[in-house]
What we know:
By secondary structure, the chain is mainly beta. 0% of the residues lie in helices and 50% in strands. Strands 2, 4, 5, 6, 9, 10 and 11 form a seven-stranded mixed beta sheet that branches. A hairpin with a 4-residue loop joins strand 5 and strand 6. The mean pLDDT is 95.
Amino acid sequence: VQLQASGGGLVQPGGSLRLSCAASGFTSDDYAIAWFRQAPGKEREGVSCFSGEDGGTYYADSVKGRFTISRDNAKSTVFLQMNNLKSEDTAVYYCAADVGPCDDDYVLLTYDYWGQGTLVTVSS
């Protein structure tokens, strides 16, 4: 299994970015893809999760209403659409995968697969 994260960059406050996590090697669609982020000097935090089993989506309170997670029809790429970005969203974003569903406690799952990080910088 491989995960390839992309889409980071520099954006002004209030702007938008879309991150992608391309997954390969899974033998079924029953896996969860989550996004985590880690800002300099801070602990890693969960951002969102897409549950492949049932299409459920889950978000950290800090991003609700601004970020949207989705999966393409081919079911191989999960997107994180980030709108109204704030300086506090600046971090390295990682996608991770776990076989099975996710729910509101997705941060407690043990993710077996991780993509490389993609840097998001929100600054004027």
